[in-house]
């Protein structure tokens, strides 16, 4: 049945049919089909285009937790910064820490619409595209700050249109993920601005030598021009170009209402005001050898760059607390340098420090590329620019120049004829010092050496000097130079003998000693230093004090060389075969090892490995090394709560018997009082030590110190050859240690070496080693009666020989009465002497 025309369903069907007819008629036209097809193709193309470039793009979510590569900062024992390990100089700041004018300067220079767009500047892109197509140059221009963040942190600096498209996609994503201030913070912290500075704060110091907060408007505007290319606006080579670009930034700031006309005019009138390239502010002169050794240890532990992990040295942002005491470092460095200069004085000019080829008068770059510098006194490293008959023209790393007159460079050339002035050629890098308005030649000593200072209770190294100057001689002789220690090995040999049952009063013959070494080597006969013959039987103490080789090898042979070299190994000196020559220091070792070995003896035989690093924190303050590090609970409490004070847990391994170690220290105190190091006696404090002079002599040594601090040094040529027949440890090395000690120990308590439990102090005759009962030691270093340290039941005793004659019966009563009286007097005397012994020991601090 037909549906009525006035029904609702009929009307709806009719409208649908009418609309379908219209669509059918329109769709039947060719141009409609063409537009539809193009539309579908466009959508499909856009989708394919998007996914072709968007696929594989990094996630922007990691920008929320992005941590830029940061340098490792090194601090001394007091927490003061001394150095930074960095390939990229960077100081990270929060957005709020950046001055408002500085932010505006960068917006005016790079992206004035930053706070209005959503990551992409379409008009700028179109204009740049037209310019690139018409000019045929590399794709460039119109990148917003957000796009630059995407490029620098996510996709790299590839030069292509594809990279620009990826930048735009990532810029949209970044704007959806981060706030505008967060984006600006990333940008200002990571942008490369030249002079190895990454981030604006690092650039502020690199170009102006001060923090951002101290910059004026003109200086901020200069920093804002650098993202376009730091080398293009170098303040030395392209000053005019830099001034022009800075003026543009200031005009843009004025145009956008960021500054007033008065501010603009004042800033534009200022010069650039940059400073020369300089050493970063966290690098302290004088600590080069120490911080380089710290760097080696950190790289061994954490790796060099980000590929090694989150705590890498050059990007992990570590905070390193070291044991460096800058005062001790200065004292050790000064003492060693002055000692080297004294020895080298009068031996002629040692030649140029280095050489660099100069082309087109670009001498400053040539000098800077050598990285040669000097921080001794007022000395400076200079490059010879030119030389004529009367003077040489010098150039310095800061770009300044000077004159070296002929008369100020007349010292003879070492090992050759002529004068230093005659041997100089352009490109030579030499040491000079100011002399009036000109300069005078100086000679860096050829001889070198090393000095190490250590705390015996902890093993912490307080100072390390590995040569004359780190920037001239980077090789660290304290840890890398393997040298023969000579007689400084003897305390370790005698410590083994003491462990083996000998005593300080044991009699050893100072006489000819030969051993048969087999058919191939034949007979080996030892000699004292300088070929001095034997002098008969003496105590062990005398042999150590006078450094007698013949007594040392005899003691080593008696003890057994396997036991001696075993102790040398355990105490960290080195691994050696059991040959007697190693008892006289024939084995090679380092100053650092020897100082630590003496520190073990001074610490009652307990070992603490040498350490330069106290602890390492990550960029967030968490201690990441050592693994078992714990903060000292209650150490920083403002008030004492009455409970036991916190104390560090005693660590270390017992390497040497405690009593044997103390006996050796007590003997070595005699080396200072009447032995080979009497030059140190007037320091007037308990101090032990031993000098060393090896064959040649090619090296001279001294190692020793007090309960608070052990120091050791050697001097010698890097390529070993004789120092001269008169060279000895007591005349060359010990005075260097004294120059250090006079300043280092000033104001320090005079503490005696503490004896371990069980040690018995006995009065003996210094020459014979026999006990003394009727006399007392005195302050005279050469007194015949001294206190000697013995283990229980090892001290010498008085022997009474009883006669076999029968007394006369008639005199028996008289004799008995006399004997009784004598016994009474002896008992009284014994009590008196016992009280005096006790009094003496109490005055000396007791026996512990």
TrEMBL record:
It is a single-pass type II membrane protein. InterPro entries: Beta-lactam/transpept-like, Glyco_trans_51, Glycosyltr_51/Transpeptidase, Lysozyme-like_dom_sf, PBP_transglycosylase, PCB_OB, PCN-bd_Tpept. Its EC number is 2.4.99.28, 3.4.16.4. Residues 80-253 form the Glycosyl transferase family domain. It catalyses: [GlcNAc-(1->4)-Mur2Ac(oyl-L-Ala-gamma-D-Glu-L-Lys-D-Ala-D-Ala)](n)-di-trans,octa-cis-undecaprenyl diphosphate + beta-D-GlcNAc-(1->4)-Mur2Ac(oyl-L-Ala-gamma-D-Glu-L-Lys-D-Ala-D-Ala)-di-trans,octa-cis-undecaprenyl diphosphate = [GlcNAc-(1->4)-Mur2Ac(oyl-L-Ala-gamma-D-Glu-L-Lys-D-Ala-D-Ala)](n+1)-di-trans,octa-cis-undecaprenyl diphosphate + di-trans,octa-cis-undecaprenyl diphosphate + H(+); Preferential cleavage: (Ac)2-L-Lys-D-Ala-|-D-Ala. Also transpeptidation of peptidyl-alanyl moieties that are N-acyl substituents of D-alanine. It comes from the Bacteria. This is Penicillin-binding protein 1A. It comes from Sphingomonas glacialis.
């Amino acid at each position: 049945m037909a549906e009525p025309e006035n029904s609702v369903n009929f009307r709806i069907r009719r409208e649908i049919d009418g609309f379908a007819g219209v669509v059918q008629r329109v769709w039947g036209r060719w141009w409609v089909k063409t537009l539809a097809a193009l539309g579908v193709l466009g959508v499909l193309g856009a989708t394919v285009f998007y996914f072709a470039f968007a696929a594989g793009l990094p996630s922007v979510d990691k920008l929320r937790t992005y941590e830029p590569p940061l340098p490792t900062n090194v601090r001394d024992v007091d927490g003061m910064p001394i150095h930074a390990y960095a390939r990229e100089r960077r100081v990270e700041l929060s957005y709020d820490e950046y001055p408002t004018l500085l932010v505006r300067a960068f917006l005016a220079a790079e992206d004035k619409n930053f706070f209005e767009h959503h990551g992409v500047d379409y008009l700028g892109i179109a204009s740049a595209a037209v310019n690139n197509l018409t000019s045929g140059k590399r794709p460039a221009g119109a990148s917003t700050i957000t796009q630059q963040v995407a490029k620098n942190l996510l996709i790299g600096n590839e030069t292509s249109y594809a990279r620009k498209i990826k930048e735009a996609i990532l810029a949209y994503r970044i704007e959806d993920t981060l706030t505008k201030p967060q984006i600006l913070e990333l940008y200002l912290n990571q942008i490369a601005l030249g002079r190895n500075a990454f981030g604006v704060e690092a650039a502020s110091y690199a170009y102006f030598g001060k923090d951002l907060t101290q910059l004026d408007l003109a200086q901020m505007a200069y920093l804002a021009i650098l993202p376009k290319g730091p080398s293009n606006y170098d303040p030395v080579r392209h000053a005019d170009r830099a001034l022009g670009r800075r003026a543009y930034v200031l005009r843009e700031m004025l145009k956008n209402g960021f500054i007033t006309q008065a501010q603009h005019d004042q800033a534009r009138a200022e010069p650039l005001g940059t400073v020369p390239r300089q050493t970063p502010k966290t690098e302290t002169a004088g600590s080069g050898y120490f911080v380089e050794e710290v760097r080696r240890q950190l790289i061994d532990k954490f790796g060099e760059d980000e590929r090694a992990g989150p705590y890498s040295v050059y990007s992990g942002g570590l905070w390193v607390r070291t044991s460096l005491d800058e005062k001790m470092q200065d004292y050790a460095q000064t003492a060693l340098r002055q000692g080297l200069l004294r020895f080298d004085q009068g031996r002629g000019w040692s030649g140029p420090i280095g050489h660099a080829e100069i082309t087109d008068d670009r001498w400053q770059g040539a000098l800077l590329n050598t990285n040669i510098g000097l921080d001794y006194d007022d000395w400076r490293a200079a490059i010879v620019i030119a030389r004529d008959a009367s003077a040489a023209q010098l150039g310095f790393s800061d770009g300044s120049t000077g004159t070296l007159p002929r008369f100020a460079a007349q010292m003879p050339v070492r090992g050759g004829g002529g004068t230093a002035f005659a041997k100089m050629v352009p490109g030579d890098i030499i040491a000079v010092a100011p002399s009036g308005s000109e300069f005078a030649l100086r000679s860096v000593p050829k001889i070198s050496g090393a000095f190490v200072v250590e705390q015996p209770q902890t093993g912490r190294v307080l100072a390390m000097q590995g040569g004359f100057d780190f920037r001239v001689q980077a090789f660290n002789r304290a840890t890398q130079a393997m040298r023969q220690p000579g007689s400084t090995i003897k305390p370790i040999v005698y410590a083994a003998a003491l462990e083996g049952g000998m005593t300080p009063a044991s009699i050893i013959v100072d006489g000819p000693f030969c051993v048969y070494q087999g058919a191939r080597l034949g007979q080996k006969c030892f000699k004292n230093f300088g070929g001095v013959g034997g002098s008969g039987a003496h105590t062990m103490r005398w042999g150590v004090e006078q450094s007698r080789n013949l007594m040392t090898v005899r003691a080593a042979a008696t003890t057994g060389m396997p036991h001696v070299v075993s102790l040398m190994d355990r105490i960290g000196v080195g691994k050696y075969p059991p040959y007697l020559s190693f008892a006289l220091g024939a084995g090679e070792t380092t100053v650092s090892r020897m100082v630590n070995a003496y520190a073990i003896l001074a610490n009652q035989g307990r070992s603490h490995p040498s350490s330069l690093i106290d602890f390492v924190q990550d960029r967030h303050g968490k201690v990441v090394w050592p693994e078992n590090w714990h903060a000292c609970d209650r150490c920083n409490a403002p008030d004492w709560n009455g409970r036991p004070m916190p104390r560090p847990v005693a660590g270390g391994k017992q390497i040497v018997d405690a009593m044997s170690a103390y006996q050796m220290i007590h003997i070595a105190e005699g080396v200072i009082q009447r032995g080979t190091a009497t030059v140190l006696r007037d320091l007037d404090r308990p101090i032990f030590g031993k000098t060393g002079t090896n064959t040649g002599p090619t090296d001279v040594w001294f190692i020793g110190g007090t309960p608070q601090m052990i120091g050791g040094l050697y001097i010698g040529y890097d390529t070993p050859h004789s120092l001269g027949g008169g060279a000895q440890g007591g005349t060359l090395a010990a005075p260097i240690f004294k120059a250090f000690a006079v300043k280092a120990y000033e104001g320090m308590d005079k503490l005696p070496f503490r004896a371990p439990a069980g040690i018995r102090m006995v009065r003996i005759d210094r020459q014979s080693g026999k006990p003394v009962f009727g006399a007392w030691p005195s302050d005279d270093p050469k007194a015949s009666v001294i206190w000697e340290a013995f283990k229980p039941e090892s001290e010498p005793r008085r022997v009474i020989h009883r006669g076999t004659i029968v007394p006369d019966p008639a005199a028996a009563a008289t004799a008995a009465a006399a004997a009784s009286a004598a016994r009474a007097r002896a008992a009284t005397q014994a009590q008196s002497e016992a009280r005096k012994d006790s009094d003496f020991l109490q005055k000396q601090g007791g026996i512990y």
